Amino acid sequence: MPPQRGQPVLHADLPAEDRFEVSPCCPSKEGPKAPDSQYILNMASDQGQNTIEMRDRKIIHIDMDAFYASVEQRDNPDLRGKPVAVGGSKERGVVAAASYEARKFGVRSAMPSVTAKRQCPELIFVKPRFEVYKEISRHIRTIFAEHTEIIEPLSLDEAYLDVTENIQGIPIATEIATTIRAKILSETGLTASAGISYNKFLAKLASDQRKPNGQFVITPQMGPSFVQDLAVGRFHGIGPATSAKMNGLGIFTGLDMRNQTLEFMAANFGKAGAYYYSISRGIDDRPVRPNRVRKSVGAETTFSLDLLDYEALAAELQPLIEKVWRHCETTGARGRTATLKIKFSDFELITRSRSAGLIDSADNLSGLALDLLKQLMPPTKAIRLIGISVSGFADSEPDDQLPLMFDESDVQG
Predict the structure, then answer these.
(1) Quick count: other Cβ atoms within 10 Å of Cβ 269?
(2) Using an 8 Å Cβ cutoff, are 156 and 67 in contact?
(3) Does the model's pTM come out above 0.70?
(4) Is 158 a catalytic residue?
(5) Which of the residues 72, 101, 152, 158 is marked catalytic?
(6) What was the pLDDT predicted at 30?
């Protein structure tokens, strides 16, 4: 069983260059501080040299360890040390979270429960208690707020914190992360992992390095070299389809991506190409956005051949419906409106929506989506893309870990 009540793994012995220095947010009595140091990041292109000046930010990504499952093991001693899956055990059930004991068997969140049980016959299913998880999450966020007001929740169990300015005046960012993790453990009995870096992309990568119950730092000096050895499939925001496309273009690692021009990336990956170009250089200018709220979640796919037939379109739509519902199921989110997205062969884009109370099951979502599709049959021209999204969530919950719209396993936007 992962550590639940022991001391958090500390990294106080890091060398000085690996401890991000931060400044207190309140001015000193001695007068105003000198401005933070600046990092000059150069982005070369065939059109010339663009220089981007970034503030020396300190970003922490906190990620609770197997959150839902750990809560259940904490509250029920009989579950400790056993493979546990939070979610429904029925045929159409989905794993919302898996304990580390279950993960040894390949059980993962968003996996169909039937598949999970096949991989781990001793798996114990526990019904999710989302109100309990939400209450613990609120408690954890009060701990974050003791250190910074700039908090961007990604889900109930993870968040970004910008500690460039530090309420408590703790001078080292790694010490802030250690303090937060220790207090979470002390007050909730749960462990958390942390990544510390100078931007969101790298902080999230860093938090995966010492799981569970640990933390890792990627400094500005480490960033570019850390990214260059990473397989493109491990980049957050690059799913299997985009990874396969990159591999087909001879791009296998961050270094391969870095060797491409901005024009090449944009030509092959559209708007996302500029983002990939930047992160391959360890650059991510996105700010930590407090109080970000999820507006919708959806999935879409582009066909290799344009389609006209209802049955063929419905067959392509069904896995997207299941993917969106898995997201709703794993997060406890319930929306009111389903929206069908269609892009025709001439790139004309249309949407059709329907609201019907709370969408509370995959069958409910499927019925709405297929009814919307039937209304467009027969189409006036061939269809190249189809998508489905859910919006109008019952609670204004913070943004979660899946994107607003994703193309099968790929992040969009």
Answers:
(1) 20
(2) yes
(3) no
(4) yes
(5) 158
(6) 35
